[in-house]
Protein backbone atom coordinates (compact mmCIF):
# COMPACT_ATOMS: atom_id res chain seq x y z
CA UNK A 1 0.00 0.00 0.00
CA UNK A 2 0.99 3.64 -0.36
CA UNK A 3 0.36 6.19 2.35
CA UNK A 4 1.30 9.84 2.79
CA UNK A 5 3.21 11.10 5.82
CA UNK A 6 2.46 14.77 6.68
CA UNK A 7 6.17 15.30 7.34
CA UNK A 8 7.98 13.19 4.72
CA UNK A 9 5.59 12.59 1.84
CA UNK A 10 4.52 9.30 0.30
CA UNK A 11 5.83 5.91 1.41
CA UNK A 12 5.07 2.23 0.93
CA UNK A 13 3.98 0.15 3.91
CA UNK A 14 2.09 0.87 7.11
CA UNK A 15 4.28 3.56 8.67
CA UNK A 16 6.84 6.15 7.63
CA UNK A 17 10.37 4.80 8.09
CA UNK A 18 11.61 8.27 9.06
CA UNK A 19 9.17 9.19 11.82
CA UNK A 20 6.77 6.29 12.39
CA UNK A 21 3.66 8.20 11.26
CA UNK A 22 0.92 6.06 9.71
CA UNK A 23 -0.24 8.96 7.55
CA UNK A 24 -3.23 8.86 5.22
CA UNK A 25 -4.02 6.09 2.74
CA UNK A 26 -3.55 6.89 -0.95
CA UNK A 27 -3.62 3.41 -2.53
CA UNK A 28 -4.42 0.05 -0.95
CA UNK A 29 -2.41 -3.06 -1.86
CA UNK A 30 -4.62 -4.11 -4.76
CA UNK A 31 -4.75 -0.60 -6.24
CA UNK A 32 -0.98 -0.24 -5.91
CA UNK A 33 -0.40 -3.49 -7.79
CA UNK A 34 -2.95 -2.78 -10.52
CA UNK A 35 -1.81 0.78 -11.15
CA UNK A 36 1.85 -0.28 -11.05
CA UNK A 37 1.23 -2.91 -13.71
CA UNK A 38 -0.67 -0.42 -15.84
CA UNK A 39 2.13 2.15 -15.73
CA UNK A 40 4.75 -0.50 -16.49
CA UNK A 41 2.80 -1.77 -19.48
CA UNK A 42 2.08 1.71 -20.79
CA UNK A 43 5.66 2.99 -20.56
CA UNK A 44 7.59 -0.19 -21.34
CA UNK A 45 5.58 -2.56 -23.47
CA UNK A 46 2.39 -1.36 -25.23
CA UNK A 47 2.07 2.44 -25.40
CA UNK A 48 0.39 2.26 -28.83
CA UNK A 49 -2.45 0.15 -27.45
CA UNK A 50 -3.30 2.99 -25.06
CA UNK A 51 -3.01 5.77 -27.63
CA UNK A 52 0.30 7.05 -26.22
CA UNK A 53 2.69 8.69 -28.68
CA UNK A 54 6.11 7.63 -27.36
CA UNK A 55 9.11 9.48 -28.77
CA UNK A 56 12.43 7.83 -29.62
CA UNK A 57 13.76 8.38 -26.10
CA UNK A 58 10.79 6.74 -24.38
CA UNK A 59 8.92 9.86 -23.28
CA UNK A 60 5.11 10.16 -23.41
CA UNK A 61 2.81 13.02 -22.51
CA UNK A 62 1.93 12.90 -18.82
CA UNK A 63 -1.62 14.21 -19.26
CA UNK A 64 -2.36 11.70 -22.03
CA UNK A 65 -1.14 8.88 -19.77
CA UNK A 66 -3.39 10.15 -16.97
CA UNK A 67 -6.39 10.23 -19.32
CA UNK A 68 -5.71 6.62 -20.39
CA UNK A 69 -5.30 5.62 -16.76
CA UNK A 70 -8.61 7.21 -15.68
CA UNK A 71 -10.41 5.52 -18.58
CA UNK A 72 -9.39 2.15 -17.16
CA UNK A 73 -9.50 2.95 -13.44
CA UNK A 74 -12.16 5.45 -12.40
CA UNK A 75 -10.61 5.77 -8.95
CA UNK A 76 -7.20 6.80 -10.33
CA UNK A 77 -5.90 10.36 -10.66
CA UNK A 78 -2.64 12.25 -11.09
CA UNK A 79 -1.93 12.28 -7.34
CA UNK A 80 -2.13 8.48 -7.25
CA UNK A 81 0.11 8.22 -10.31
CA UNK A 82 2.70 10.49 -8.68
CA UNK A 83 2.51 8.46 -5.47
CA UNK A 84 3.51 5.34 -7.43
CA UNK A 85 6.49 7.15 -9.00
CA UNK A 86 7.70 8.92 -5.86
CA UNK A 87 7.48 5.91 -3.54
CA UNK A 88 9.20 3.47 -5.93
CA UNK A 89 12.50 2.46 -4.32
CA UNK A 90 13.82 1.11 -7.62
CA UNK A 91 13.28 4.47 -9.35
CA UNK A 92 11.69 2.80 -12.39
CA UNK A 93 10.22 6.02 -13.80
CA UNK A 94 11.10 9.66 -14.22
CA UNK A 95 9.10 12.82 -14.86
CA UNK A 96 10.42 15.85 -16.70
CA UNK A 97 8.00 18.75 -16.99
CA UNK A 98 4.92 17.39 -18.76
CA UNK A 99 6.61 14.16 -19.86
CA UNK A 100 7.10 10.77 -18.20
CA UNK A 101 9.07 7.65 -19.12
CA UNK A 102 10.35 4.36 -17.75
CA UNK A 103 14.06 4.46 -16.96
CA UNK A 104 14.61 0.83 -18.02
CA UNK A 105 12.83 -2.44 -18.77
CA UNK A 106 11.52 -1.60 -22.23
CA UNK A 107 10.46 -4.22 -24.74
CA UNK A 108 9.47 -1.52 -27.26
CA UNK A 109 12.17 -0.02 -29.45
CA UNK A 110 13.56 3.08 -27.72
CA UNK A 111 16.91 4.86 -27.84
CA UNK A 112 17.51 6.02 -24.28
CA UNK A 113 19.69 9.10 -23.94
CA UNK A 114 21.35 8.69 -20.56
CA UNK A 115 24.93 9.68 -19.81
CA UNK A 116 27.68 7.18 -20.52
CA UNK A 117 28.58 4.85 -17.68
CA UNK A 118 31.65 6.03 -15.73
CA UNK A 119 32.32 2.85 -13.74
CA UNK A 120 35.22 0.64 -14.86
CA UNK A 121 33.57 -2.57 -13.66
CA UNK A 122 30.01 -3.88 -13.83
CA UNK A 123 28.35 -7.14 -12.84
CA UNK A 124 25.75 -9.56 -14.14
CA UNK A 125 24.15 -12.48 -12.35
CA UNK A 126 23.33 -15.66 -14.25
CA UNK A 127 22.07 -19.15 -13.54
CA UNK A 128 24.45 -22.12 -13.74
CA UNK A 129 22.55 -23.34 -16.78
CA UNK A 130 23.17 -20.20 -18.84
CA UNK A 131 26.56 -18.95 -17.67
CA UNK A 132 28.68 -20.96 -20.15
CA UNK A 133 26.62 -19.71 -23.11
CA UNK A 134 26.95 -16.10 -21.93
CA UNK A 135 30.72 -16.40 -21.55
CA UNK A 136 30.96 -17.89 -25.04
CA UNK A 137 28.55 -15.65 -26.95
CA UNK A 138 28.24 -12.54 -24.82
CA UNK A 139 25.24 -11.05 -23.05
CA UNK A 140 22.33 -10.03 -25.27
CA UNK A 141 18.90 -8.74 -24.25
CA UNK A 142 16.09 -11.28 -23.94
CA UNK A 143 12.58 -9.84 -24.40
CA UNK A 144 13.96 -6.40 -23.58
CA UNK A 145 15.54 -3.59 -25.54
CA UNK A 146 18.72 -3.50 -23.42
CA UNK A 147 20.87 -5.74 -21.26
CA UNK A 148 20.54 -4.67 -17.62
CA UNK A 149 23.81 -4.84 -15.69
CA UNK A 150 24.46 -3.93 -12.07
CA UNK A 151 26.87 -1.45 -10.54
CA UNK A 152 27.69 -3.65 -7.55
CA UNK A 153 28.09 -7.32 -6.65
CA UNK A 154 25.28 -7.01 -4.12
CA UNK A 155 22.79 -5.62 -6.64
CA UNK A 156 23.74 -8.21 -9.25
CA UNK A 157 23.07 -10.99 -6.75
CA UNK A 158 19.79 -9.42 -5.67
CA UNK A 159 18.55 -9.26 -9.27
CA UNK A 160 19.77 -12.74 -10.18
CA UNK A 161 18.08 -14.34 -7.17
CA UNK A 162 14.72 -13.36 -8.63
CA UNK A 163 15.34 -16.04 -11.29
CA UNK A 164 17.69 -18.54 -9.66
CA UNK A 165 18.51 -19.75 -6.15
CA UNK A 166 22.20 -20.24 -6.95
CA UNK A 167 23.42 -17.32 -9.09
CA UNK A 168 26.84 -17.12 -10.71
CA UNK A 169 28.39 -13.67 -11.01
CA UNK A 170 29.99 -12.41 -14.19
CA UNK A 171 32.47 -9.55 -14.06
CA UNK A 172 32.27 -7.04 -16.93
CA UNK A 173 35.29 -5.00 -17.98
CA UNK A 174 33.19 -1.94 -18.73
CA UNK A 175 36.11 0.44 -19.16
CA UNK A 176 37.71 -1.66 -21.90
CA UNK A 177 34.38 -2.37 -23.58
CA UNK A 178 33.53 1.32 -23.75
CA UNK A 179 37.00 2.19 -25.06
CA UNK A 180 36.25 -0.22 -27.89
CA UNK A 181 32.90 1.34 -28.74
CA UNK A 182 30.40 -0.63 -26.63
CA UNK A 183 27.76 1.84 -25.48
CA UNK A 184 26.80 1.65 -21.80
CA UNK A 185 24.25 4.00 -20.26
CA UNK A 186 23.67 4.85 -16.60
CA UNK A 187 19.93 4.46 -16.08
CA UNK A 188 19.99 4.64 -12.27
CA UNK A 189 22.52 4.48 -9.45
CA UNK A 190 22.36 0.69 -9.66
CA UNK A 191 21.55 -0.12 -13.31
CA UNK A 192 23.63 0.31 -16.47
CA UNK A 193 22.13 -0.52 -19.87
CA UNK A 194 23.84 -1.91 -22.96
CA UNK A 195 22.62 -3.29 -26.29
CA UNK A 196 25.15 -6.14 -26.20
CA UNK A 197 28.25 -7.06 -24.22
CA UNK A 198 30.68 -9.20 -26.26
CA UNK A 199 32.29 -12.21 -24.56
CA UNK A 200 35.86 -10.81 -24.51
CA UNK A 201 34.82 -8.38 -21.76
CA UNK A 202 33.35 -11.08 -19.51
CA UNK A 203 34.86 -13.37 -16.89
CA UNK A 204 33.62 -15.32 -13.90
CA UNK A 205 33.96 -13.45 -10.65
UniProtKB/TrEMBL annotation:
The keyword NAD appears for this protein: yes
Keywords: NAD, Transferase
Family matches, as Pfam families: PTS_2-RNA
EC number: 2.7.1.-
UniProt GO MF annotations: NAD+ poly-ADP-ribosyltransferase activity; tRNA 2'-phosphotransferase activity
SUPFAM superfamilies per record: ADP-ribosylation
Protein's GO biological process: tRNA splicing, via endonucleolytic cleavage and ligation
Coiled-coil spans in chain: none
Function: Removes the 2'-phosphate from RNA via an intermediate in which the phosphate is ADP-ribosylated by NAD followed by a presumed transesterification to release the RNA and generate ADP-ribose 1''-2''-cyclic phosphate (APPR>P). May function as an ADP-ribosylase.
Family note: Belongs to the KptA/TPT1 family.
HAMAP family in alphabetical order: KptA (MF_00299)
Record protein name field: Probable RNA 2'-phosphotransferase
Organism of origin: Candidatus Methanoperedens nitratireducens
Gene: kptA
Amino acid sequence: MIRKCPNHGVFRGTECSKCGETGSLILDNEQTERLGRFISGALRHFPDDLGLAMNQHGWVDLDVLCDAMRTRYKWANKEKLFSIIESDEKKRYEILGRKIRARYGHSVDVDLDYTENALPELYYGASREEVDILLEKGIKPVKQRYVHTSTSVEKALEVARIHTDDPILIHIDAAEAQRNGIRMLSATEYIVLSEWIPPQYLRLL
